């Protein structure tokens, strides 16, 4: 640090005079950028941001220390703590192309980096900061601004990126500033790039607003005047309160037209904008994958890919499947299967929006659409679960000894006079594709007499209702059971449930009424009941002993399915042109009930029609593509590809007016943020030879020595030094 010097100042002198004096004393070249710091009573340093105020207004006192800091050649300030792992010599020797510089991901900050990279490559804005024109326009008094701190932080970032001395930089200081003024960006959570860009543009505008005192501007209606005149008036009124480099570069003008549906009154207004948030064309079709389970047990489940209306109902899904299978939609039931159980069984009138793409949807063929558990003259649809007994961990709760497996079923059974033994045969028939019936070697002598051949099992046409001459398993009544009738099985908390079965018939599994989760509740059983009761819980579980399941249940065959030819169908998503998005943005729409317009002619709130037109385009047009499509009940993330021109030669076609600033100007668009920069940078500092004794002359938080002065309203001692190489962290 150089020898301190003194100078005299009046209370009415400006802080800028102090800065100019320090620059003269320490022979700082006009090209070098400097700034002042003052040491307060607590020993910490504060920036003297506003150099236009007087020494008295800056509260500078006799004996107070003032430090002059000189910017390094690489665009950094010596006071900035380096966030880097590279050596100083490595970065000092690097000479790259200005502007080709990466931004380190601080942790989920790709949203910020992508916005900064796009904004820093706007030529007129970057040139504005590199040539220090922003210093003359910093607005420290704007109550809507950030006292110039956002503008200065962004300027520092731009100067580092465009110095040509960095492969990449760490935007830690900028991130801290943003989080200080916008708490939503504190921490390292993910955010939308557009949200950060919107905040940054607004912050830069207010920090650099040339209007120091905003006057009141009364908005005037068109009142039948020519659009050109009204638009010019609206733009001039906007500039009377908002005049900055952001307005010069990014602001344009909308034309908004409202038409009353009752009296036909037309209201025309012109409003400024900074960017366009345009919607993407949304397809009204949706592709859904489902599995169709036929009543014929010999047919494997079929996977289908169906095209349905995006805002359709469950009935539309059944109609689409009927075209592939020939099964009437009235004989279909749709269910969401999750973890071997029915997560939900849908009704025909429910919306398809409740089904997600990742859901496993099964559509079952039934004998008729009898609702589960409701009264019916003929059939009832039973949900069937498969469970396997496992060694119980807690013998006081039988549920712990049962585990769900496989795919559940929806089976139509006759409601009247259905015994448990008859239900057993119905389910055995439905499982016959992957469940092997016991052979003669597995039966007792009495079993061989009563064993039915598999080929004699009725075909699917007999499942729901066969003839009296050829009754199928589903029609079996109490006579099919044990003498006196069979009873509902009961879970035994001490072990497996014992099935009351025929004396000479070997049953492969037992049946148990359960709830929708597949768990048993003994309180629901009536041991004196001979038939199956549907009054309480219509869910039935097929319980397998491990040995019986291993012997007769073919797991590979049970999991098998076939793909229908429609599975190869892909709903082609053709890319849309940017022009289509603009046209969609400017289409006529009717206001919603929650946001009516007050018609000055009718003196009532009306659901008017509204149309937006682009009247005047800025030099650089920012287009925000809305990635989400919102409804009242849901939102959908879009992955539509958008083709846009690098040079907007057709931009004039978007204009509704005859005048447009920057017609055919470059179009700045934003893609989903991706982070590709992974290298780290080192902030190097300017080196000069200086006496070693000057190193510790000032107790300062700065990691390097720099210009300093002891300030007095009458006299001042000015010190100046230069920054050595900063130690890497």
From TrEMBL:
The residues covered by the USP domain are 101-729
Q: PROSITE patterns annotated for this entry?
A: USP_1, USP_3
Please list the GO terms describing molecular function: cysteine-type deubiquitinase activity
GO BP term, example: protein deubiquitination
Q: Where is this region: Disordered?
A: 72-93, 437-502
Q: List the signal peptide residues.
A: none
Query: Which Enzyme Commission number(s) are listed?
Result: 3.4.19.12
Compartments it resides in: Cytoplasm; Nucleus
What InterPro entries has UniProt attached to this entry?
Papain-like_cys_pep_sf, Peptidase_C19_UCH, Ub_carboxyl-term_hydrolase, Ub_USP-typ, USP, USP_C, USP_CS
Compositional bias segments (type: Acidic residues): 441-450
Can you state which reaction this protein catalyses? Thiol-dependent hydrolysis of ester, thioester, amide, peptide and isopeptide bonds formed by the C-terminal Gly of ubiquitin (a 76-residue protein attached to proteins as an intracellular targeting signal)
Looking at its record, which EC class is this enzyme? hydrolase
GO annotation, cellular component aspect: cytoplasm; nucleus
What's the protein name?
A: ubiquitinyl hydrolase 1
């Amino acid at each position: 640090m150089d020898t301190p010097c003194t100078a005299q100042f009046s209370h009415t002198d400006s802080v800028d005079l102090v800065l100019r004096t320090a620059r003269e004393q320490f022979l700082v070249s006009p090209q070098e950028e400097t700034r002042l710091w003052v040491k307060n009573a607590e020993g910490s340093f504060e920036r003297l941001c506003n150099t236009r105020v007087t020494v008295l207004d800056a509260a500078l006192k006799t004996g107070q220390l003032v430090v002059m800091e000189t910017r390094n050649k690489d665009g950094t300030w010596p006071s900035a703590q380096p966030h880097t792992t590279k050596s100083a010599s490595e970065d000092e020797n690097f000479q790259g192309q200005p502007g080709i510089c990466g931004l380190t991901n601080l942790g989920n900050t790709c949203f910020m980096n992508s916005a900064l990279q796009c904004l820093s490559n706007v030529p007129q804005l970057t040139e504005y900061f590199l040539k220090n024109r922003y210093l003359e326009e910093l607005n420290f008094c704007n109550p809507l601004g950030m006292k110039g701190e956002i503008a200065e932080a962004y300027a520092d970032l731009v100067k580092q990126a465009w110095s040509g001395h960095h492969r990449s930089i760490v935007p830690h200081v900028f991130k801290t500033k943003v989080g200080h003024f916008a708490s939503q960006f504190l921490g390292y959570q993910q955010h939308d790039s557009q949200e950060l860009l919107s905040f940054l543009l607004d912050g830069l505008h207010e920090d650099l607003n040339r209007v120091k005192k905003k006057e009141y501007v009364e908005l005037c209606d068109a009142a039948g005047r020519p659009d050109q005149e009204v638009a010019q008036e609206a733009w001039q009124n906007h500039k009377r309160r908002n005049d900055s480099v952001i307005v010069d570069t990014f602001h344009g003008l909308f034309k908004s037209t409202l038409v009353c549906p009752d009296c036909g009154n037309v209201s025309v207004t012109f409003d400024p904008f900074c960017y366009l948030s345009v919607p993407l064309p949304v397809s009204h079709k949706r592709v859904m994958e489902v599995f169709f389970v036929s009543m014929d047990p010999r047919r494997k489940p079929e996977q289908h890919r169906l095209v349905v209306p995006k805002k359709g109902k469950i009935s539309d899904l059944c109609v689409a499947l009927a075209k592939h299978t020939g099964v009437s939609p009235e004989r279909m039931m749709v269910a969401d299967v999750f973890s071997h159980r029915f997560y939900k069984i849908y009704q025909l009138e429910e919306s398809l929006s409740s089904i997600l793409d990742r859901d496993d949807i099964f559509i079952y063929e039934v004998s008729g659409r009898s609702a589960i558990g409701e009264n019916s003259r003929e059939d009832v649809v039973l949900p069937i679960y498969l469970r396997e007994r496992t060694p119980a961990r807690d013998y006081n709760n039988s549920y712990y000894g049962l585990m769900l497996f496989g795919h559940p079923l929806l089976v139509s059974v006759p409601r009247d006079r259905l015994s448990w033994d008859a239900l057993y045969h119905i389910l055995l028939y439905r499982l016959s594709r992957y469940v092997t019936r016991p052979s003669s070697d597995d039966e007792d002598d009495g079993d061989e007499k009563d064993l039915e051949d598999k080929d004699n099992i009725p075909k699917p046409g007999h499942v729901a209702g066969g003839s009296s001459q050829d009754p199928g398993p589903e029609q079996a009544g109490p006579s099919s059971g044990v003498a006196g009738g069979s009873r509902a099985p009961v879970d035994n908390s001490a072990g497996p449930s014992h099935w009351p079965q025929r004396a000479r018939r070997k049953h492969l599994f037992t049946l148990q009424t359960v709830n929708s989760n597949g768990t048993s509740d003994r309180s629901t059983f009536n041991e004196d009941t001979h038939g199956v009761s549907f009054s309480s819980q219509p869910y039935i579980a097929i319980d397998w002993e491990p040995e019986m399941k291993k012997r007769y249940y073919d797991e590979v065959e049970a999991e098998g399915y076939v793909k229908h030819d429609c599975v190869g169908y892909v709903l082609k998503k053709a890319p849309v042109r940017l022009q289509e998005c603009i046209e969609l943005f400017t289409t006529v729409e009717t206001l919603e009930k929650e946001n009516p317009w007050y018609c000055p002619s009718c003196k009532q709130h009306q659901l008017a029609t509204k149309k937006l037109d682009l009247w005047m385009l800025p030099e650089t047009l920012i287009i925000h593509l809305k990635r989400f499509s919102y409804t009242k009940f849901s939102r959908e993330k879009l992955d539509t590809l958008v083709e846009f021109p690098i040079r907007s030669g057709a931009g004039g076609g978007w204009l509704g007016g005859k005048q447009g600033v920057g017609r055919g100007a470059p179009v700045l668009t934003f893609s989903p943020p991706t982070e590709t920069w992974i290298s780290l940078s080192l902030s190097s500092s300017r080196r000069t030879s200086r006496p070693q004794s000057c190193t510790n002359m000032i107790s300062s938080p700065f990691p390097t020595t720099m210009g300093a002065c002891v300030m007095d309203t009458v006299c001042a001692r000015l010190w100046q030094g230069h920054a050595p190489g900063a130690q890497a962290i």
